[in-house]
Specification:
Oligomer: single chain
Number of strands: 0
Strand content: under 5%
Radius of gyration: 15 Å
Helix content: 55-70%
Largest sheet: none
Bound molecules: zinc ion
Amino acid sequence: MEKKRLEQLKKKLLQKQSDLLHAVSRNEQDGRLADEEATQDVADKAINSYTKEFLFHLSNSDRNLLQLVHEALERIRDGSYGQCVTCGNEMNPKRLEAVPWARNCIPCQEKEEQGVHV
Ligand SMILES: [Zn+2]
């Protein structure tokens, strides 16, 4: 994958992560966490030792999404980003544009949604 594209997707993932963590601070109605700088701090903490504590405040779907975003960022770090975690094929760039945290290529995703475990 092109480095420039990867950077863009990484930015999107970080933005999404920050949005989700923003939702947490809104839920807590904690004014201290409301500003941008504090959110960055929250994001750092969430990635480190407070992950579970923060995840506790999220709805199930947000928690799943945050986990997917986190995993995608891990894959960027270890260089496997852009490959389907199930079959290992390169994913369609358009799919990654639309869903940067996607783990599976479309055929594998469809199988998973149909409850076929591969
Ligand atoms: Zn696949």
